[in-house]
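Quick one: Hydrogenase from Thermococcus siculi, structure tokens please.
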Amino acid sequence: MSWLESLTLTSPSGFWNPLLWLAFLLIFAVIGYIIYSRGNRGYKPNTEQVKPFISGNAVEDVEQIRVRAGDIYWGFMEALKGYYAVLMRMHTGDVRDYILWYLGIGAIILFILLGGV
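--- reply ---
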């Protein structure tokens, strides 16, 4: 057995060799560097180039155009308002309550699975 074979881990579904992995990593690093080096040389960070472009309009306040998570789920939350109202009343923020709920539901499921019902 050669030293290269001693580094190879074989299994019924394939093989693993760290030197082969390093060779591929080096090849992909070289390819990545070639792509990076051919990039646009006119790019200048911290200039007007990095400002957001919204249909040619200047953006004065970024907070005005920022989409918040609440905006994304507004329709979903509005449609299920009754459901979430019940959940919000149950939500105490106390971890002990959640553990109690977890244990209670787990006990019910265990009771059902063991043939109690």
